[in-house]
Fold this protein.
Amino acid sequence: MITKNEIKFVRSLKIKKNRIKSDQFIVEGEKIVDELIDSSLELVKVYSTSSKYESLDKLYTKISKTNLLQISNLKTPNKVVGIFRIPKPNKIDFTSQIVALDNISDPGNLGTIIRLCDWFGIGDLICNTETVDCYNSKVVQASMGSISRVNITYLDFKDLFSDKKLNAVAADLDGHPLNEFKFQKNQIVIFGNESMGISDEIKSMVKDRVTIPRYNSNLDVESINVANSVAIVLAELKNRSTGR
């Protein structure tokens, strides 16, 4: 039986400050919860209408469909809500290829980018402090199990990119054509906000810029969604950086 205090606590995890205070975040749906249970993340609690989690013993509480609706962030909840401990980020490997995100605001975009990093073998994702929280429930849903396999670190980009030794390139409409750019083994690729792009302050600190060539001369064509841009750039990065 779930208590009123537990319901109140789980519902509170919808808010960032409460996730930070408790070091916990919410995960929904059997597929993601099951995958994260099998990951390196620490499971705190599972609430489910199903008995399949009985083997978790004290970490499992069976609940009613009404209770599930009370604690879920979804309009149509999927049997289970899991609570996991927010992991401490590992040390960033600056000898490898890295994705950096400047002011990404849409949770779905961030979740998709986390999945893309996982797919393309990018171990580190660096976000500036204004980027949406990666443990926002919408981000977690969009990232699927990849949230447990990508090391995500939030940093002040002014401090980070003041280090001129970093091999950084900004994804920007005024950059060099993607197919001509020489990527390095320790390349950091920076992507910017959905509508504003990378801030002028950060662009001024990064000497190299790269862009995805436009093959349609119609200037009315909208720019590519940031998650799509990440997919295209990472595919090129991985295809052309081998052995550099």
User: Anything to note?
Assistant: The first helix runs from residue 4 to 12. The mean pLDDT is 94. The beta strands are 24-28, 43-48, 60-62, 80-85, 98-102, 124-128, 151-155, 168-177, 188-192, 208-211.
